[in-house]
Amino acid sequence: MVLLVHSSLSPHCRKIRIQMSEKKMLYVLKEENLWSLSKDIMKINPAGELPIFIFDGNIIAGNYAITEFLEETYTQNRLITGNNKERAEIRRLIDWFDNKFYREVYQPLIGEKVYKRFILHQPPEAKRIKAGINNLRFHLEYIDWIVERNNYLAGSSFSLADISAAAELSIIDYLGDVPWEEYINAKLWYSKIKSRPSFNEILNDRIKGIYPSKHYADLDF
C-alpha cells in the first residue's frame, strides 16, 4: 500500500497528489495538521515537514525527494521530459513555484488569513496581505507572459512545472484572492490544468472554517 501523509493546505502535498494521479497510482491519504504534526509523524520525519511517502515499509520524506522518486520509479506518464535543457527548464520552473511563489505569495497570505486566524487567534496584518497580493500579481504576469507563447509553462507539453504552479495557485484561488480577469492567458492555462482528471480530488479539498471561492471547483470559472 502507498500512503501519503499530507495536508490539504500544503501546495507541495497537492503537487505530489496530482503527480501520483497523473501516473494512475493508487494511494491512501493521511491528513495531518500542517502546523502541529503528531508525535508519530515527527518520529518518521524529524524535519517536521510534509509530505511523507510511505510504501512497503520504506519512507521518503520531502517534496523534491518524492517527486524525483516517482519520476524514476513510475516511468509511465513522465512529467519531466525532453532533452537535458528542456528537463532543466522544467526543474527551474518547479523551483520557482515551490520556493519563490511559496515564499512571496503563499506564506504571507496563508500565514495571515489562515494560520493567524485559526492557530494563533490573532487578527491578520493588512500590510503583509497587501504585499502577498502584490507579489501574486508579479507571478501572474510571468505566467501570463509564458503561456501567451507556449501551450504550457515549460513548452508545448504538460509537465511537473504546470503541476507545481497550479498546486500553489489552487490554495490561493480557494481564498478568492486571484484576480483572474486581469490575466486572461493565465486564466485559460489554469482552467486547462484544473480540468484534468488528476485535479478532481484537489478541487474537493476544504479548509475548515473557510468557504471556497465560488469558482474554485468550476472548471469553466
Task: Summarize the helices and strands and which ones pair or pack.
Blueprint (H helix, E strand, L loop, with lengths): L1 E5 L4 H12 L5 E4 L7 H6 L7 E4 L2 E4 L1 H11 L10 H37 L5 H24 L10 H15 L9 H11 L5 H4 L18
Parallel strand pairs: 1-2
Antiparallel strand pairs: 1-3, 3-4
Helix pairs in contact: 1-3, 1-6, 4-5, 4-6, 5-7
Brief rundown of the structure:
The protein is an alpha+beta fold. It contains eight helices and four strands, in the order E-H-E-H-E-E-H-H-H-H-H-H.
Describe the fold and architecture.
The model has no long low-confidence stretch (mean pLDDT 96). The protein folds into 2 domains: 72 residues, Glutaredoxin; 120 residues, Glutathione S-transferase Yfyf (Class Pi), Chain A, domain 2, CATH 1.20.1050.10. The termini are far apart. It has a 4-stranded mixed sheet, with helices on one face. The chain is globular. It has 8 helices and 4 strands, in the order E-H-E-H-E-E-H-H-H-H-H-H. The longest helix has 37 residues.
